[in-house]
Amino acid sequence: RPLADYYHAQTLREILAARSWFADQHPWGSSDAMLLACAMHVLHGNRPYALSRRSHPVTPYAPTGETVYKSFIDKLREKTTRVLSEPLPTGFQNGFIYEHDATSWWPSDIYDLDAVITSPPFFDSTRFFLANWIRLWFAGWTEHDFKSGQRIFLEEQQKRSLTCYEPIFRQSKERLGNSGVLLMHLGKSKKCNMGVELQRLARKWFSKSELFDESVAHCESHGIRDKGTVTDHQYLLLY
Fold it and tell me: Which of 83, 145, 226, 228 sits CB 3.0–4.6 Å from 141 for a disulfide?
């Protein structure tokens, strides 16, 4: 549905103001990034925390129920308070975040890694660059970004050829330490055994590998009507 259908008019004005504020802060520091993540969490859903009318917390399906004003600042404060109330674990170390295309050349200060752990888009699953459209819009996406998704994102590129993963395999091998590993969480579908195909492709860079399958045919759908044709979750370990 159109964005305005999800919110009370005053709530939408506050969301628009917040979107503009986050755009002015970019590139985001750690505090801004945490606020942005919390704001995205409360944008839509089916529980009282959500700013929207009743929808879905993962994919913003057409909203239902009464239109009620909800304060953006109040909901954001509630969410950040819950996050900050959790104590950091003993030995916690600050990390680094890069806003970067993983298929292009990685920054030079990423090297000697213990592990590369990633879950790329499952083959023939939900198109997240479209399914999460409200959160992506809030993060600054424009009409051009949505239209270019089919050309630039892995979840569309891999339908033409899985060789789009070669830059990730090559750079992972180059940047891992001597005992480092690459772990990929993948989705096997009726159209592609993603783990087997990527295991074969990765042999050019990794001499050893292990692949594990876990059926999800029996699992709860979490209210998502169309989850694609994924039948198994796969875990591909390369070293």
Answer: 145
